[in-house]
């Protein structure tokens, strides 16, 4: 009996350094936010769950190009916002480096292309090819998001190549909020801008997505999927956190709700996430299947306590 007890104690002692090493290596999870409300929403959900499990989420606000460089260079651990195919060139670069793993496709049913407001649709614009004939009404401007974003680059390339006769149009780069403020403020003026789903703009603004942009944004009105990326060495070192992220998938209605809380109600992303998680325990249970806290306790219990407390 003494020998058996000693064997158990030796086994436990041997496991302790591994657990300690993993906690030291994985205790902080670093990821980035490009300033898009959809990614802010999903980042907030991930932060609430990670914190409940004993991790410390460290979210840096980085533009898309800088965020990908940070992931490539090991300055961040994962990224929840790899929109495909719009960000294909960044994925190609990461794939060439061979250090990144795709953990999961976390969203389907997304779309991302140019759209017009009601005044633009009333002017007869339903396709990219319709724009140039109405240049004066649109003041020759296409409203984009933050500088450096792949979608802006696609628009600028289209202008530079004089596609659809848009060679003398101007791309106005700003950011998601500034762009939407422009559209809302000038609702009576025809406006063409980047639009996407999921996003509460689809509820707040009467939007017509433009056909004809398959070469620039992909078929099905820029139909897109979103993926979670992580560094391979981080996945190997932190299998518990990686398992959580590989099971964390979202849907368009969920993201619309969360984004509406953030944009329309001024709610903090984590506060919005807590409310959603408390109201959707079955989804949380699926995400946390086989996932523990950082110190090895049942993960689902910890998350339930955090969001219901």
Automatic annotation (TrEMBL):
<dbReference type="InterPro" id="IPR017783">
    <property type="entry name" value="ABC_choline_sub-bd"/>
</dbReference>
<dbReference type="Pfam" id="PF04069">
    <property type="entry name" value="OpuAC"/>
</dbReference>
<feature type="domain" description="ABC-type glycine betaine transport system substrate-binding">
    <location>
        <begin position="28"/>
        <end position="278"/>
    </location>
</feature>
<feature type="signal peptide">
    <location>
        <begin position="1"/>
        <end position="20"/>
    </location>
</feature>
<protein>
    <submittedName>
        <fullName>Choline ABC transporter substrate-binding protein</fullName>
    </submittedName>
</protein>
<dbReference type="InterPro" id="IPR007210">
    <property type="entry name" value="ABC_Gly_betaine_transp_sub-bd"/>
</dbReference>
<keyword id="KW-0732">Signal</keyword>
């Amino acid at each position: 009996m003494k020998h058996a007890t000693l064997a158990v104690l030796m086994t436990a002692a041997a496991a302790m350094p591994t657990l300690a090493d993993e906690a030291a290596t994985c205790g902080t999870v670093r990821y980035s936010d490009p300033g898009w409300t959809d990614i802010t929403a999903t980042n907030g959900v991930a932060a609430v769950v990670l914190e409940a499990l004993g991790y410390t989420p460290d979210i840096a606000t980085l533009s898309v190009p800088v965020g990908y460089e940070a992931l490539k260079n090991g300055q961040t651990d994962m990224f929840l916002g790899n929109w495909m195919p719009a960000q294909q060139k960044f994925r190609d670069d990461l794939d060439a480096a061979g250090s990144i793993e795709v953990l999961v496709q976390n969203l389907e049913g997304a779309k991302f292309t140019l759209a017009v407001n009601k005044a633009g649709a009333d002017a007869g614009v339903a396709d990219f090819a319709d724009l140039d004939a109405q240049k004066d009404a649109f003041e020759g401007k296409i409203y984009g998001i933050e500088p450096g974003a792949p979608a802006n680059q696609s628009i600028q390339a289209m202008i530079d190549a004089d596609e659809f006769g848009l060679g003398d149009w101007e791309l106005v780069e700003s950011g998601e909020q500034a762009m939407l403020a422009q559209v809302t403020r000038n609702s009576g003026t025809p406006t063409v801008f980047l639009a996407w789903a999921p996003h509460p703009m689809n509820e707040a603004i009467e939007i017509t997505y433009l056909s004809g942009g398959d070469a620039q944004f992909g078929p099905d009105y820029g139909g897109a999927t979103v993926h979670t990326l992580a560094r391979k060495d981080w996945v190997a070192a932190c299998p518990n956190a990686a398992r959580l992220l590989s099971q964390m998938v979202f849907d368009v209605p969920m993201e619309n709700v969360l984004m509406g809380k953030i944009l329309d109600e001024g709610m903090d992303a984590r506060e919005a996430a807590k409310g959603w998680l408390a109201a959707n325990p079955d989804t949380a249970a699926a995400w946390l299947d086989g996932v523990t806290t950082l110190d090895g306790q049942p993960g689902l219990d910890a998350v339930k306590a955090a969001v219901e407390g």
